[in-house]
Specification:
Elements: H1 6-9, E1 14-17, E2 27-32, H2 39-46, H3 67-70, E3 74-79, E4 83-86, E5 91-94, H4 113-118, E6 133-138, H5 140-150, E7 161-165, H6 172-178, H7 192-197, H8 199-213, E8 230-236, H9 244-257, E9 260-266, H10 280-296
Parallel strand pairs: 2-3, 2-6, 6-7, 7-8, 8-9
Antiparallel strand pairs: 1-3, 4-5
Protein name: Phospholipase/carboxylesterase/thioesterase domain-containing protein
Family: Belongs to the AB hydrolase superfamily. AB hydrolase 2 family.
InterPro entries: AB_hydrolase_fold (IPR029058), LYPA1-2/EST-like (IPR050565), PLipase/COase/thioEstase (IPR003140)
Length: 297
């Protein structure tokens, strides 16, 4: 049986799908569910979705295949969040943090830091195999995972990949002011949560810039950085719950920080566009995971 990595356990109770029988464990994906869901439910819904059919190639007689079928050496970890009090609906719901409004994520941002702060540490504890780890999530889970990435205390270590679907970046404007392309910490009106959480990353960016400016010093190889993490970003143009402009803005902010985002847009997904488009987005996700494998095998 595969031993659980501390990074997997840090998010709490998880539903785990092990590698296919007869295949070694080579990579791990940790994927966070959206508001009102659970890890097990997210797993079931994700693995009920199929890639494009290739008749007679994958499974003769039934060409439909899932990500788990196509990536048999991957371990899939689906953590479940605790229930938090939702001020808008006045009830307890499963959620990584409280988002007062998905239509306007800047509304009541004071409610967001406790949950986001709690999400920042788990991946820092990964057992030395961060390059074989993909982190990500959908909707509220994607927003949470983004702060796991930006709030890392080990910015010198890239992940294998990152996936954010139908989501947004909480405190995006503040991140843009504080880090931007210069990482100079500018902006006296930046929220204290952003100042605190991104300080290791800001110092890391600044250190990289200083190295690049030292013309007399030659580097055979660029030092590793969390900014080298491959990012898959996707959003539905017809998303009725999280406007695509929020996703596009997140992509722009991440690019400004120095990350590279493979951006994809779709139409016609279930749940009024607030879900994964089948099979096109599934095909693109498979190609992304393949790229992660090629970098690490």
């Amino acid at each position: 049986m595969t031993t659980a990595d501390p990074a997997e356990q840090g998010f709490g109770n998880s539903h785990i799908v092990e590698p296919r029988a007869g295949h070694p464990h080579t990579h791990t994906a940790i994927l966070l569910h959206g508001r009102g869901s659970t890890g097990e439910e997210f797993s079931e819904e994700l693995f009920e979705m199929f890639l494009s059919q290739v008749e007679g190639v994958d499974n003769p007689g039934d060409p439909r295949t899932t990500l788990a079928d196509k990536l048999p050496t991957w371990r899939w970890v689906f953590p479940s969040s605790a229930c938090t009090w939702n001020t808008t609906f006045e009830e307890w719901v499963p959620a990584w943090f409280e988002a007062y409004s998905l239509a306007d994520p800047t509304s009541r941002q004071d409610l967001q830091p406790p949950g986001l702060r709690a999400s920042a540490g788990p991946v820092d504890n990964a057992d030395g195999a961060a390059s074989r780890l993909v982190l990500g999530g959908i909707s509220l889970g994607g927003a949470t995972a983004l702060w796991t990435l930006l709030g890392t205390n080990r910015p010198e270590r890239p992940l294998g990949g990152f996936v954010v679907v139908s989501s947004w970046l909480p405190f995006a404007n503040d991140v843009e002011k504080h880090l931007g392309r210069l990482g100079d910490g500018g902006g006296s009106d930046v929220h204290h949560f952003v100042l605190e959480m991104t300080e290791p990353l800001r110092l890391h960016i600044r250190h990289q810039q200083q190295q690049q400016q030292q013309q007399h010093q030659q580097y055979d190889k660029k030092p590793p950085s969390v900014l080298d993490t491959l990012i898959f970003g996707a959003h539905g143009r017809d998303d009725a719950f999280v406007d695509i402009e929020l996703g596009r803005h997140a992509q722009q902010v991440l690019t400004g920080v120095g990350l590279t985002v493979q951006w994809h847009e779709y139409e016609g997904a279930e749940q009024e566009g607030h879900w994964i488009k089948e099979p096109e987005e599934m095909d693109d996700l498979k190609a992304f995971f393949d790229a992660v494998e090629r970098r690490t095998l």
